Amino acid sequence: MKLSPRIQFLVKNGLKGLAWMAVLLAFYFLFRELVLSHAPDEWIARFYARPGVIYLIYAASEFFFGIIPPELFMIWAINKADALHYLYNLAFFAVVSYLMGYLNFLIGQFLNKNETFNIWKKKVLKDPEKQVRKYGIFLIIVAALTPLPWSAVSLLIGSAGYPSKRYLKYALFRFLRFAVYGYIVYQTHQI
Predict the structure, then answer these.
(1) What is the model's pLDDT at position 36?
(2) 3-state SS assignment for residue 160
(3) How far is the CA of 42 from the CAs of 35, 45, 60, 103, 108, in angstroms?
(4) How far apart are CA 112 and CA 87, in angstroms?
(5) Given CA atoms 90, 88, 168, 101 in this order, what sign does their dihedral have?
(6) Which pLDDT band, with edges at 50, 70 and 90, does 125 fall under?
(7) Cα 145 versus chain centre, distance
(8) Whether 33 contacts 117, CB under 8 Å
(9) Could you tell me which residues come within 8 angstroms of residue 177 by beta carbon, excluding any fewer than 6 positions away?
(10) Distance of CA 62 to CAs 7, 37, 51, 130, 174, Å?
């Protein structure tokens, strides 16, 4: 059975995203064994005493193209308190990620109206509107579910003139990502 190019795109990029998640988990477990296990109290005091700062760093990271993977914040949250507070933090992280993605989408729509940006976009990205029309739904879903830079993809989708309602609908897959990854983090950190 031959798969359509869209499904091939989804599968190929989905597998890449899972590979990146495996790499991130390997780095985390290595870091935990080599660094955290030697001075855990120092790390706990440094990062757990100021949750407001952590939330601000998370929001900024999600706005600036996901510089820090959300899984690291999930790990911070699971080590901070009990399961109920972990769920609250996970919900907060998911909502912030969704909203920051939408904010970047709106910035992309605004930039789409700027002629200088459009000239630059056509030179650098080689007709992104055509690609977004072809792969838009799949690009949103893959970025929502994998470690691809969510905000950057949202910005690109917005700058290509993608409809807001469709973006918001398919961006809901971001919540599924946080549920699945949050469950994995929870299962791997139970004492």
Answers:
(1) 60
(2) coil
(3) 11, 5, 25, 36, 41
(4) 37
(5) negative
(6) low
(7) 8
(8) no
(9) 144, 145, 146
(10) 27, 28, 16, 27, 12
Which residue, among 180, 176, 181, 156, has the nearest Cα to 167 in the 3D structure?
156
pLDDT digits (tens, 9 = 90+) for 22-66: 776 677 677 667 666 666 556 556 666 778 888 998 999 899 877
Name the H helices within the chain: 5-31, 40-48, 51-63, 70-80, 83-112, 115-125, 128-145, 150-159, 164-170, 173-188
Rounded to a whole number of angstroms, the distance between the first and last alpha carbons of the chain is 45
The token pair that represents 55 in the structure block: 């939330």
Q: What percent of the chain has pLDDT over 70?
A: 76
Token look-up 């706005």 returns 63
Name the residue among 92, 64, 65, 89 with its Cα closest to residue 77: 89
